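Action item from last meeting closed. Structure (81 res):
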C-alpha cells in the first residue's frame, strides 16, 4: 500500500512517499535522497561527505525500497511509528 509518512529529522518535518508491506515501512530511495539528502552507495548510507557503513544491506533494502526501521538503526536514531 503506497502512502506518505512524515519524518522529523532534527526539527524539520518532511513528507516522504512510502510503502507499507507486512508491517514494515519502506521509503522510496529517491525521496530519501531528495528530502533528507541520504543516498545508498557502496560505502553505505551517505549524506554529503559523511558515510555510515551498513552491515546488513539485505535488512536495509527490500523490494519496497529502504526499510525505515533499518535506516533508523543504521544511523543510530530513535524511531516511533
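Sequence:
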Amino acid at each position: 500500500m503506497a502512502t506518505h509518512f512524515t519524518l522529523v529529522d532534527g526539527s524539520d518535518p518532511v513528507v516522504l512517499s512510502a510503502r507499507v508491506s507486512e508491517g514494515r515501512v519502506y521509503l522510496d530511495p529517491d525521496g530519501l535522497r531528495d528530502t533528507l539528502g541520504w543516498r545508498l552507495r557502496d560505502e553505505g548510507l551517505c549524506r554529503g561527505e559523511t558515510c555510515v557503513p551498513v552491515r546488513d544491506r539485505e535488512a536495509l533494502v527490500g523490494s519496497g525500497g529502504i526499510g525505515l526501521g533499518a535506516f533508523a538503526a543504521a544511523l543510530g536514531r530513535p524511531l516511533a511509528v
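Note appended to the action item: Helices lie at 29-36, 57-60, 68-75.
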